[in-house]
Amino acid sequence: MQKSSEKLVDDTKSNDEKQEIGFRMNQRVHTVGDTRRIGTVKYIGNVEGYSGIWVGIDWDNGDGKHNGSLNGVTYFEAKDDKSGSFVRPRNLSHGISFLQALELRYKGDSTKEEEDEMYVLSARNNRVAVELVGKSKVQDKLSRLEDLVGASLSYLGVSSVGSRGQINAVVPNLKELDLTGNLLSDWKDVGTICEELQVLEVLSLTHNYMAHDVNQLPVLENIRVLVLNNCCLTWTQIEVLKQSLPSVEELHLMGNKLKEIVPASSNYVRGFDSLRILNLEDNCFEAWNEIVKLSQLRRMEQLHLNKNNLNNIFYPECGPKIDDSEPAEKCFSPFGTLNCLLLGRNNIADLASVDSLNYFPSLTDIRLSENPITDTGKGGIPRFMLIARLAKVEILNGSEVRIRERKESEIRYIRFVMTKMQDEPEEIKQLHPRFNELKKKHGIEDEKPSTETAGPRKMSSGLLSITLTCVGASMGEKKPLTKKLPATSTVIILLCQLPVD
Fold it and tell me: Which segments does the entry list as coiled coil (predicted)?
């Protein structure tokens, strides 16, 4: 049995009961007394077997009891099996306005919960209260809202703008604003806040589930950094957002479950003329072809792709084309300005992907950690081999590659290939593209076989000869003894005084 979600409240209920409820479908709410337990209204009405009106909530953190069905009746569809529950209206909060949140955070006294968290443990494991030196001065400074340059209103239940025209009068100098984990969902409200904060440059809307209709967002000339992590966005919405963000330099889109990139006009993403950093970590990208659609962003310097499902990499000129119809005069060198590419925690397992990174014109900062190709326990290669194969890398997996480490890595790599590989030159060139280049760079010639023995070089040719001579007069002279040992062997000579008869 499926109850219609269009019918919000039974017609038989009184107007007083309807007014008491005060919620609407798809409204963002939090539990009274817990601003971090946030969910979306999915049903309002009766529940069979229970009296009164109930609100069906799909909780963000999955902390519910069912999937929207109870006793065989489906009231709404929750995103997970245990993310839905029914709650009495009195136990839910609509949230507060932006200005109320400012007053609460910067002019209100510390709550008992906040005070209780300010302690250290003594040697006997007892709590000792901490008194902050200069706390009153800091609070006095923060309470002057007109002087605030940065504000954090995270998890305060902000759901509306409040009275229009007042925000800029209260915080006229605000440049950075963190609205993480609030109840905002309407882009129109976001636009109003940004328009009133005339010098705002940095905005975080992380963990606000934004509506699909982005068209109500005005042009935000001053926003340089926009953080939209875990906002349930699609790339179609991002393409619309692009029109409102002419000056954005950093765009963070982590945790939006993105699988594909859908450009608005051609097969490549255009616009974002000021974008330098694009963060797509913790999404669901599998095919590198999707990422290639970003290759024409003309100022992109950093691309963060950690924690996706990518299986391989290729440079567009060496791999499949995705747009044969693109006029050549409109293209520039793919990923031409990219100097940082973070690929940690993906599924990259082939050396060809590593070697392809050499084709990226400006790439010097690379992260490949937590991929199969770097897991030496599963057939991956060690750091020195990565350095040797990557000609331009200056920072690998967050660690600087110094001149000495590069030289030692490249020479070690050459010796490794010469020792392990007996293949034909063409095969070596295919498997180790930089091998001949590195030999020439470091002046290392191929080992020539002995004139006495044809074929591969013998192990004995790399041994050291050591002659042991007995000098114990009382024992009588013995003939010198010659042994051959590896060059890395450690020789320990014990001297002792023997008794004389």
Answer: none
